[in-house]
Amino acid sequence: MDSNIFCVLCGGPFHLEHHIYSLNPQKAVYQWMYDVRLLATPSALSRQIIGVYSQEQPTNLSEDDNVFLSQSTQWKITDSDCFRLGESYYCVLTDDGHGNVIFPLHHACIQIGCRVLELHPGISRVTDQLSPLGRLNQMLRLQFQYNKSSGVGVGHDLFNLNSENQTGDPRSLLAMDELGWWGDEHEKFLTDPLEIPGISQFILDVLRATPRTSGPESPAVRPLRSAESIEKMPNELLDIITAHLPPLSVVALHRSSRLLSLKVPLDAHFYREYVANGSLFPQVWDLDNEELEDDENEKADFSRLDGLWDWKSVVRLLQKKEFSVYGLGCGLSEAIPLGFWNRCRIWRIIEDACPP
Ligand SMILES: [Zn+2]
């Protein structure tokens, strides 16, 4: 790709040129790349305007006064580092002299970024007074300033995805640099990460591919020491407490000791409920519960425990959060929706970029 204008959150372009990517830019799964928004601190707009053909102010779609989110705009290679809003042009990815920058981003990446900042339990709440959109802008702005002050440079590869990741790593900028000679693998870097037809079907495929199990779900585990602290708590009381905890906290409690793994058992019902509603894996927010239930009712294999699928197999898969360019290595390479692969990739980039 000749241009160094791209979405800093995913490394993907804003425009697919014909005859370069060996794919059809008109396909529905690629249209998300053409929905580009400008994200900035509001004051940056007046300083980065370079061509004013109207006094009309661009519409701010953000509900947070601390951040500007533009309406949809588009970009083509002849636009260089300028984006048009209304009748005016704005210079992007350059410091306005006051520490503010206008970031052009895919709307889909902004939405994924806001979900990461809002839902991920490991994210610092230092900037709680800001909306997720404001925190996303803040994160990008601080990273830009850090790169500038540390001598890393102010190249547009804000998170050093290209220099720190090997070719073939989902976080590398493969989508930018090596599309022309990477077979067909580039499609997954460019497929719509929001609208993913078949994501529920993929989960069902994973369940079906799970080896048959029989007998009790948890093997007999004997504690190696006597109970201490919270481990002494009666099971009934622990049940009441865990019923009020977020699912991720219940999992953490379960894993904290061998004794607690016995006292706080996690069965297929637990995993199924909280995977399906997105509580355990917030990057999977759009499973179709009805589709899952219909299929389970129709095809449940009662030789499996409780007549349920082994949801732990899905949990193990989703815990990866990131999948190799080369596939899953478990016979499901063909089944993973390309959009889901791309969503996980973008989610991981943003998650890694968040302050601890
Ligand atoms: Zn993007």
Relevant terms:
F-box domain-containing protein; 3-stranded antiparallel β-sheet; 6% strand; mainly alpha; binds zinc ion; 2 domains
- The succession of helices and strands, N to C, reads EHEEEEEHHHHHHHHHHHHH
Main β-sheet description: 3 strands, antiparallel
Give, in spatial order, the strands making up the sheet with the most strands: 3-1-6
The residue-averaged pLDDT reads 79
Number of strands: 6
What is the total domain count?
A: 2
Alpha-carbon distance between the two ends: 33 Å
Cα gyration radius (Å): 23 Å
Structural category: mainly alpha
Describe the global form.
Answer: globular
Q: List each distinct ligand once.
A: zinc ion
Strand content: 5-15%
Q: Helix proportion of residues, in percent?
A: 25-40%
Number of helices: 14
Low-confidence stretches: 302-306
Task: Report on this structure.
With 356 residues, the protein is mostly helical. The chain folds into 2 domains: 28-190, no CATH class; 199-353, no CATH class. It contains 14 helices and 6 strands. The strands form 2 sheets. Strands 3-1-6 form a 3-stranded antiparallel β-sheet. A 3-stranded antiparallel β-sheet has the order 2-5-4. It is globular, with a radius of gyration of 23 Å. The two termini are 33 Å apart. The model is unreliable at 302-306 (pLDDT under 50). Zinc ion binds next to strand 6. Residues 227-274 form the F-box domain. This is F-box domain-containing protein. InterPro entries: F-box_dom (IPR001810).
